[in-house]
Input
Amino acid sequence: PETLKRFLLRLLLEMLCAQMQGRERTLGRELQKLVLIDNADALLAGGCPGLEGLLRQGREFGLGLLLSVHSLDFFRESGFDCRKWISTWILHNVQALRKTDLEYLLQIDIHDSSLERLYQESRNLRKLHSLIRIYNDEPVLAEDLPFYEIAGDAAQSYLTPSKSPVDP
Output
């Protein structure tokens, strides 16, 4: 059941946070571990102290977090402002994207002329394209490198046309 899954995930994150805090901090803040949480909006909706602790202190211990969400509303509605601990945002095509979403997410003034341009470009992002903001740099449009290209397995991708059958 979903409630059991969320409970176990929250417990795992709290245990990871406690284990992390019992270790020595990394001096160079080099990335040693990476945790990916898909549907993080569902996890954060009810509050998750373990995840909040990892967001606040993870880099000090060499831990990076990737949070995937399906709706940008949760960043405003969760009651936990995680923007101050998230330094990189990657925005893919989001259904029903609003200018206020970009203003909140990218921390750009709604009256900034570049926001209108970013808004229009973000609404028209194609598959394998994204808007990226790293630290406080200007957001940039980028073409993503899909895993199947990294793995050299384009024939297995649903994004590439299939090869024509070989004659016997």
